[in-house]
Amino acid sequence: MRPDTPAENVDHSAEAARLERTADLYPEDTEALLLRAAAHLELAGERPAATALYDRLLTAEETLDNPPLIRALKASNLWEYGHEAEARAIIDGIRASAPRDPAPWVIVAESLESHDELEAAQEAFTAGVGLLIEDGQDDPAQPTHALLFGRHRVRRMLGLPHDAWDTLADSVHSSPVSLDELHDPKRVWSLGSDNPAELEAEITRLRAELGTYREALSRPFPVAVLHWPALELTELVEAYPSLSSEYPSHPEHLSTIESSLRELSASGTGNLGIVTGTVPSYEAFAASEGTSPSDAALLPQYATTLAARGRAVAWPPRGEAGCWCGSGRGYGECHGAGV
């Protein structure tokens, strides 16, 4: 439930510094960019620096989108490098404020769980579920699923019997391996077994668990394709002629976007989106990367950054929504014709 989980095999300190520079260029996106920077710093082991970024956000004069999330991340980070008392105080404050977003509840509960505070973790998961999911609701919102799954896991570790919310967790769980198997406290013993059947079963469970984890990570930040409106594309190619090979014409650019997204969808890639670029924004991004806007290799990085800043629009458009290309026609009458 963190805002982003950075990729492996990157220089996390350098990426954090890049995101901080980008935040200076785009003040309206400071919150999202600095949260990602803090995640990189945590992975780099620079936890005090991550705390400094959380404090920078919490003390800023600008209105934050999700203060409880930032406080929860700060508490989790503080506990990891010895500031347990301060972390507990923040966690108590978050629980008392009863945020209406599942992410802070998940982070708080998982932090307690990771420090073997299983009863307290179960209480935090339960409080979040009770606040955000109505009794008898059989189709809870996707973001609340992590609360249900976490609660189920901790209760299995505590040896508690199933209740109605555990049953609901089972019903929304999409993996072919049941939650009871995934959360079986005895699973660790099977890894040391000499029985090939037991080992094969555990490998199957681990693969299912990894698939579910990857699916959850993919939701907040879609695979995004870069779209240039006609006037912006004209200005881009006139300013940087070397990019004309990437964009021979605007109609071909739009056709390529739609065909690329359809191919990705057909291959099983989910959570697809489109981000719209502007020349000033692209030039600022190139400056933050210390390279020239004429470098075509920068284009996918720019698209990814726009998506991480929350600028992606889901593809395909739902219902009677207008086409993503901005033609003013419905998607089914425009680029979605024949779908």
Structure description:
The structure is a single chain. The chain is mainly alpha-helical. Helix 1 (12-25) runs antiparallel to helix 15 (279-289) and helix 7 (118-132) runs antiparallel to helix 8 (145-158). A three-stranded mixed β-sheet has the order 1-2-3, sandwiched between helices. The longest helix is centred in the middle third of the chain and has 23 residues, at 196-218. It has helices spanning 12-25, 30-43, 47-58, 67-80, 84-97, 102-114, 118-132, 145-158, 164-172, 179-182, 187-190, 196-218, 230-239, 250-266, 279-289, 298-308; strands spanning 223-227, 272-276, 313-314. It starts with 11 loop residues before the first helix and ends in a 25-residue tail after the last strand. The chain has two domains: 12-218, Serine Threonine Protein Phosphatase 5, Tetratricopeptide repeat, CATH 1.25.40; 223-333, no CATH class. Helices cover 59% and strands 4% of the residues.
What are the main properties of this structure?
339 residues; three-stranded mixed β-sheet; disordered N terminus
Spatially, the strands of the biggest sheet line up as: 1-2-3
Number of domains: 2
CATH topology of the largest domain: Serine Threonine Protein Phosphatase 5, Tetratricopeptide repeat
Question: Helix and strand string, N-terminal first?
Answer: HHHHHHHHHHHHEHHEHHE
Portion of residues within helices: 55-70%
Count, helices? 16
CATH C-level class of the largest domain is Mainly Alpha
The residue ranges in which pLDDT falls below 50 over 5 or more consecutive positions are 3-7, 214-220
Give the CA-based shape. globular
Secondary-structure arrangement, i.e. CATH architecture of the largest domain: Alpha Horseshoe
Task: Summarize the biggest pleated sheet.
Answer: 3 strands, mixed
Separation, N- and C-terminal Cα atoms: 33 Å
Residues in β-strands, percent = under 5%
Please tally the β strands and state the result.
Answer: 3
Could you report the average pLDDT, rounded to the nearest whole number? 84
CATH superfamily of the largest domain: Tetratricopeptide repeat domain
Q: Kindly name the structural category.
A: mainly alpha
